[in-house]
Amino acid sequence: MFDLINTKKNGQSLSGDTYARTPARTSERSAFFKVAVATAPFMISSGAYTFKLTADRLMLAQHSPMTMSAAISSGLCAFMLASIFIGAVGYASVLVSQFHGAGQDRRIGPCVWQSLLMSLGAGLIIMVSGRITAPLFWVFGHAPELAAGEIIYFQTLTAGAVFSLLSTSLMCFWTGRQKTWVVVVVNLFSITCNVGLNRVLIFGLESVGIPAMGIGGAALANVASDALKALILLIMFTSKTNQKLYDSRPGKIVDLRILSKHIIHGLDCGLQALISVGSLACFNVLMGCYALTALHGNVAAASAMAFTLNAALSIPMIAMGSAVAMLTGYGAGAGNETAVRRVVAGAIVWTLAYTSIAVTLVALNSERLLSLFTNAGGMDEATRRLASSLMGFSAVYFAIESWSHVFGGVIRGAGDTGFSMRVSMTTGLGVMVGSLVVFHCGGPATTLWGLFVASAAIRSAALIHRYLGGRWQGKAALNQGGSLRSKSFAEPWPVKEEGILV
User: Fold this and answer.
1) Cα–Cα distance between 99 and 355 in angstroms, integer?
2) Which one is predicted more confidently, 264 or 138?
3) Any residues with CB less than 8 A from the CB of 493 and at least 6 apart, and which?
4) 2 and 328 in contact (C-beta within 8 Å)?
5) What predicted TM-score, i.e. pTM, was given to this entire model?
6) What are 90-107's pLDDT values in tens digits?
7) Cβ atoms of residues 50 and 314 within 8 Å
């Protein structure tokens, strides 16, 4: 499907190893198959992470529906606080790709270390910010039991956020070199440990004297599994082989030139994530502000069930977006617009098939899905009716948002990140403002969910329009100053003889 990318550099043929890292001439393979193969590792990683979240929430729901609601709202707030830093440290993956593509492998280790230094500083900022902002959950007017659980979960996650940031930085060493399966295996091991710890710490283990910790145990299990993952990745990263090939234990840790690139470009990515996650956090916090009544039931718990369903359904589509972005980047780098359009066509077929099947299964099995969230005490009828209704909204939201994953992946992969950021910021801020207005005007929870679905429709429509208009082309690579290299697809890694352009 793809032409070879950069088969020559500085007039010389690429080595066998570099040649193996470029997409082969496989025009006879269908785009449908290509997209499926590229999606697999992303799907396993995102699926495993979502499974961890779902298992966490199901166990908390069995412990108490209120603790599940507290974990979702406070967990989103903690992630919102960390998201801008996650974008910054994750930019190391881009720099690693550039150094690797330029054959400057000895600069990869120091590059990752700049991200690790940023993670340590960001972790301290998040921890302090978490302690300062945690009392705001009382200000939101949540029920005392809900607010108490939110504060415990939020403070524990923010205190341990440094381990998640360190893991993100270290994973860039492998993802930047397209060694994604290494990350998949480590993630699976970490998530397996997390689920096991959840079971023990949430409900306790009397035989060995471990008390039931409830929501605090769930938060502690998340932090412990992230710390374990960071330790494993650090040991692998600093191995003798990686030291020899990539200088993973450099004599000089600080490189101000690379560090400045992390901060400047990484924070741009983090800002988009901050707005997107912030809108979700605001939405969930408002759901917790609805009073518990006999007429409407437990709005916070019903909405949490709908969000959990959406997270589970979105696993393949999040992975699809990442795969499409990667394949688009290769096609754009090769100047092969036809290859990009074939990727999009394959992704469209996959999306139509998956969303149709998923929505149908949800419609036919709504009662069974609700039973997963029911503890021994059962669920009152008002909450059950509301949860069933919100799950319908969740399924519609998922079906529409799936298209933003696909076409957003194309836009990002082609380098048109500015447009993607503007769309996300506009719709995210729209959800925040609209939700606040509806809530303060006494609107029901279903109206807020309607706004949520509308934002997905606007976002998807904008990205599809951008793709069809073709204005995403010509933005594949930037020079040192940050301007476009050309009006057509450019090389993925611009290089000079004396060094790489980052």
Assistant:
1) 38
2) 138
3) 6, 97, 98, 101, 102, 333, 477, 500
4) no
5) 0.66
6) 777 767 766 776 677 888
7) yes
